[in-house]
Amino acid sequence: MPDNPGPWLVGVARHKALDRLRRESRRAAKEAAAALEPGIATDADAADTDADELGLIFMCCHPALDPAARVALTMRCVCGVATADIASAFLVPESTMAQRIVRAKRKILAAGIRMTVPAPDDLPGRLAAVIRVIYLVFNAGYLAPSGPALIRGELCDQAVSLARAVASLLPGEPEARGLLALLLLTDARRDARVADSGELVVLADQDRSKWNRAQIAEGERLLEQALLAGRPGPYQLHAAIAACHSCADSAETTDWRQIAALYGTLLRYEPTAVTEANRAVAIAMAEGPARGLAILDALGADPQLTRWPQFHIARAELLALAGRRAEAAEAYSGALSLAMPAPERAHVERRRAALTQQFGRQEP
Fold first, then answer.
1. Which of the 8 DSSP states describes residue 205?
2. Quick one: how far is CA 238 from the chain centroid?
3. Is 92 helix (H, G, I), strand (E, B) or coil?
4. Alpha-carbon gap, residue 130 to 25, rounded angstroms
5. How far is CA 36 from CA 42, 47, 174, in A?
6. Which of 173, 168, 180 is nearest to 232 (CA)?
7. Sites in the chain below the pLDDT cut of 70
8. How far apart are CA 324 and CA 322, in angstroms?
9. What is the value of pTM for the model shown?
10. Which end of the chain, N or C, is less packed with Cβ atoms under 10 Å?
11. Could you tell me if 168 and 36 are in contact, meaning their C-beta atoms sit under 8 angstroms apart?
């Protein structure tokens, strides 16, 4: 007899449930095995592992839950992303995200929602949420919201593997291919983003010889295949933007007008302040900082956007280009008031110090 029977029974039940879910999730992988295509398939052992996790992700992305809640719950309970990092992805306080996840769990219990791996016919209906989960997991790895490292390689690798599994499971879905193309095109720059000293290297200064050309070629091929389906979507557009960067021989030859146009189209699918802010930067690079600053300043009233360090950094860079150094230093200070990984914080501090020195003002 265990010393504490209650918790012991709960623990045994939990392990039994997880074993059952893993067995159920393997069914989808077996059904998808015949559909595996060259260039997407992975080795058998890795595919089994990814199928287990992917089955759990499809299970947790239940249509009865609010879209934001199902994505957050899945990131936390299946992918193991910290609540603080999920909150950062959604640009909300950690306490708000914690409550959102708790409410989702309570709804599952109160409504008696059956959390089972969906049948093959039900997979497309959950695809948008599943893709969102994988995309946000990748983002949490490619630019860590906080901590000592800029990149969490294990999260990037996990997301790419899951994207491959989704593209294999649903080969007729162009957005699944678009997601995989986006992650490959973006992840191809990973090795160039951090100097040997550990410092952040911004895109314009990266050594492009360090970019993974095999990943870029695969990503471009997958994007072309997705676009040929004639069903555009947000992840295909994100991938097209990433391709504009990967195809450019240098920062100077980047087609910023095309990127700005793609962000304009993306607004139809993702009409968010973040998308508009990214469009503003592209416009600034194509037409001058004043045009981009006008858009960013109009977005500055959005309280959610002000919790995004990249918004303040983008404003600072454009203000500096416009010769407004004091305002640029202040914008960098706004970014430094928020959480960010140590290498990015050090980069921002150096940029602010350089500007402060230039206009002879004491560091704020």
1. G
2. 11
3. coil
4. 14
5. 9, 10, 15
6. 173
7. 1, 3-4, 6-8, 10-50, 359-364
8. 6
9. 0.85
10. N
11. yes
